[in-house]
Structures are given as structure tokens and as C-alpha cells.
Amino acid sequence: MRLVLLSGGSGKRLWPLSNDARSKQFLKVLSDEDGNKVSMVQRVWKQIEETGMAGNSIIATSSSQVDMIKTQLGQDVHVVTEPERRDTFPAIALAAVYLYSVQKCSLDEVVGMLPVDPYVENRFFGRVQDLEKALLDSGADLALMGVKPTYPSAKYGYIIPDNKSDDSYLTVDYFKEKPTEQQAEELIEQNALWNCGVFAFRLGYIIDLLKERGMPTEYSQLLRNYHRLPKNSFDYEVVERAAHIVSLPYDGYWKDLGTWNTLTDEMAVQITGKGIIGKGVENSHIVNELDIPITLLGLDNVVVAASPDGILVTDKDASTKVKEYVEGFNSRPMYEERRWGWYRVLEYTRYAEGNEVLIKRLGINAGKNLSYQMHYKRSEVWTIVKGEGIFVFNDQLSHVRTGDVIHIPLGAKHTLKATTDMEIIEVQTGSELIEEDIFRTSNEWEEIEAICKIKITARHG
């Protein structure tokens, strides 16, 4: 059985810590058994490793999340990258084609799909593996895993079985998306299950579906034609049209940590970052990524979350509505983790005459390097405030250290490798300070060094 973890979306329900570049699954707000801070994706990947499934697992994600996944899980994790975000059906189709044409999996291989961030026990993943037998024994198009409800929730979708189901698996009659609590009570009496977004299919089922639609089943070709795939959910494009679906019940602990009220229930401490909660305050949390302290007095059942992107103060019961209020916030992310480290935006100004200034603080981990790049719409000034490294400027290498100031004009190729942990204050000045003005030659340091050696040989030859 192959496993595909779906990592997409911006996770605005956990604003201001989550944004378009740092989705909820990457927030290090949970704790492992040693008390270390871990993210949802790190917790799930460790469980997959412990249950022996990591070697047959890949992660399907968008290009903006690849660096974060590699940083948190390691460079060896297999990642399938969408060329653009187009919902879950295109992402799953691309992952299926990758398994088929790149990893050469058989059309009879069973593929399991699950979100990258469920909060579960290890035995949950054993039940995921049981989907393979249920699918093959039943001859169904799809096999879904459903969680036995512990209360009539109006937040989840429900899987309703028919009356002819046997003990080994349930035959699905229909689905109900986010019913009222009264409707949920009635559904639970019919043995309905929470839909936790975990399902399996034979690889050939999706490959045949793509062929019927005239879509390529070779990975590089599908990448080029990705825009032709319908921008729809897998539920709408496949599940609702499947003739035969079965479901496996799971009676263990499961929780979707998609909102502040559910996430704080699983946090080991009340205060993350600088903060004080007054005596007698009950069931309140502070999550603070800023360098200034937050003091919370006399307010029960609230969350105060602060990051460079903004500050949220909310009653926990109302926290589920955060997304609808911040959906229109389209400003640049103020903090990102990258494969080489992290950066934080300190200030951004756009002047009336059109010139822009952006000030960042960058942290580059020892042994890591920035991409070899150039810009045509901005110049940069770097002030090294911590550590030392190797700077490359137009194919020439030099050693730099704390206190050095580096001027990088328009059109100059440049990069930096940290030999110790480094921090830099970067001041960008130009007409348009956007990601599209980064033209990369290489990400790999060995390639960059080789380019410089060729230039040195040419100069002295």
C-alpha cells in the first residue's frame, strides 16, 4: 500500500500564525513526549515512521510549502509539487500519476490518501492500512475511513451506511455535510461516522478516469497540462460519482486541529512565547511570536495570538469564525521558514513616487545557502550581524563575517553560504519588491562552486 499525505491550503483559521506561506500544519505549537515543540506535520510523520509506512509515503503539496516540508521533515522526503493550487482533485490526480509513471507502481497498487495534520493515536495508521483489505475484499471503487462520533458535531461531514452492511466494512449509502446538531443526533442513531478525509483506491481507478477525460498519465506531461484539470474537490469529481463505496469505522481518538479552540485543547502549556496570564483566569491561552510581552487579565476562555502578520483576541467559541474575517487580508507574509533558515519582515514602505523599501532579518543555518540569484527591479544592502560565511558575487567567492556591509546592485548574481549560524539585516530598495523578481541560477552549493571554479580557470588560463 502506498500513502499520499495531502498538504495544501493556507490555513487562515489559525491566523495570524498561519498565512499563505506557513499553513497550520507547520506551526510548532504542540509538544512531543520530551517536551520539545513540534508541528502537526512533524507529529504525523513521526507516527508514520513508527508504524513502518514512511518508506512508501509521499507528500502532495504546493510550491510555496516545499521548503517548509523539507526543513521540518528532512531533505529525503518524497514531495509531489503542484505547479499551481487547483483543489484536491488535481492534487490527487498528480500524485497518482507520479506513482504510476515515476515510481512505476502497478495499476493494482492500493493508494491511501489522508490529510497531513490529523491529531490521532498511532493505531489510527494501522486502521488506515486496513483500508487495503476492505477495498480488495469488497471490490469497491473507494474505501473510506470514518470515525465513530463521540458527540453530535455540526462541524464535520458524516458518512451514512446502508442497512445491509456486514461487520468487516460498511457499505456507504450517502453523505451529509455539516448537519445541524439535531440532524447529527439522528444520523448517529443510523450508525453514521465522521468523515475524516481518509480514503483509498486502486491506482488504476484514477489512471483510467484520467484516460477517459483525455488527460495524460505521464508525470511531466500532466504537469504541463495541469491547468486543464478541473479546479474542484476530489469529493465532487470522484466520490459523488462513484458507484460503490465502503467505509471502515475507527473508534479511537481523532481530532481536527483546524481552529484555535480545538488546537489549544491539545497544547501542553497555556503560554507560548512572552506572556503573563493573571491568577484565576481559566481556559485561556497566549501564543506569542513577537518580542514584546502580552498580559492577559480577567478573561476566561479566550485566545490571544500574535505574530508579525497581526494580533488576534477571540473568545474560543467564536474562534471558528476567524477565517471569514481575515480572508481578504492579502498582504505579504511577514514571517517564513525556508530550506536555508527563516526570515522576518521588519518594515515595508511604499513611497508616493513609487519607490519601495523592504527591511528583513534573515537567519541562515550553518551549512545552508541561499540560491544563486539576481534581481532587475531592486538593489540590496546586507549587514551581517551574526556569524560568518562565504559570499559569492558575480562568480567570485569571498569570506564575510559579523560587521561586514555588502552592496548588491541591480543585475548582480549573488548568494551566501553560512559556515556558522548567521543573521543578516537586508534592505531592499526598488520599483517592485516581489517574488517574481528573483531569477535563480542554482540552489545547490556544489553547482555554484563549480561555476565559480570555471570562471577562475578562465581568468587565469
Automatic annotation (TrEMBL):
User: What Pfam family does this protein match (any one)?
Assistant: MannoseP_isomer
Domain Mannose-6-phosphate isomerase type II C-terminal residues, every copy: 338-441
Q: Does the keyword Nucleotidyltransferase apply?
A: yes
Keywords (alphabetical) are: Nucleotidyltransferase, Transferase
Enzyme class comes to transferase
Domain Nucleotidyl transferase, chain residue ranges per copy: 4-267
For this protein, what is the EC number? Answer: 2.7.7.13
The record's GO molecular-function terms, alphabetically, read: mannose-1-phosphate guanylyltransferase (GTP) activity
Quote the Gene3D superfamilies the UniProt record gives.
Jelly Rolls (2.60.120.10), Spore Coat Polysaccharide Biosynthesis Protein SpsA, Chain A (3.90.550.10)
Q: Which InterPro entries match?
A: Man6P_isomerase-2_C, Mannose-6P_isomerase_type2, NTP_transferase_dom, Nucleotide-diphossugar_trans, RmlC-like_jellyroll, RmlC_Cupin_sf
* Family annotation (PANTHER family): MANNOSE-1-PHOSPHATE GUANYLYLTRANSFERASE
Q: What is this protein called?
A: Mannose-1-phosphate guanylyltransferase
